[in-house]
Amino acid sequence: MPARTSADVVVDSRVVIPAEEFAWSFVRSSGPGGQNVNKVSSKAVLRWKPRASSSLPEAIRERFLTRYASRLTGDGELILTSDESRDQAQNAARCRDKLRELVRSVVAAPRPRRPTRPTKGAQQRRRAAKQHQSRKKQLRGRIPREE
C-alpha cells in the first residue's frame, strides 16, 4: 500500500481514497471579491469516478452508486465544487471534506427493517377514532322534516 499524503481522503481506517484517483481543475470563482475574482482561479473542482475506484470495498461502492446516482454524470463521474474561500488550497480541502462526508454516509450498512405489528390498544384506538369521525360526519347531513 502506498504511503498516504495530505491530499488523500481518509474516510475511516478501512477506506482511504488516494489523491491519484482525483482530477482537479481550478476556475474563476463567481460572486463578490472585487478585482481579485477576475484574475485568480480559486474555485476548486474535484472530479472522481467511484465506479473505477479501487480503494472502495465493493459493498460500499454499490451503496454509494445507488444513493448518489443522481449526482453522477453520464460517464459515472462525481463532480464536487467549492468556492467558499478566496484561497485555492482551502477550497480544495473543502472539496475533499465533502467527498469524505458522502462516502462516510454509506460506509455503514443500513440495518434491515424488522416488520412490526400494531398493538391491540393501537388498533382499538384507531377503530374508535374512525367511528367518532364517522358519527361526526353523519350528523352533518340533512335533518328530515316531521309533518
UniProtKB/TrEMBL annotation:
It comes from the Bacteria. Its EC number is 3.1.1.29. The keyword Hydrolase applies. InterPro entries: Pep_chain_release_fac_I. Keywords: Hydrolase. One of its GO terms (molecular function) is ribosome binding. Residues 14-140 form the Prokaryotic-type class I peptide chain release factors domain. Transmembrane segments: none annotated. Residues 103-147 are annotated as: Disordered. Residues 111-147 have a biased composition (Basic residues). GO terms for biological process: rescue of stalled ribosome. It holds the Pfam family RF-1. It is an enzyme of class 3 (hydrolase). This is Aminoacyl-tRNA hydrolase.
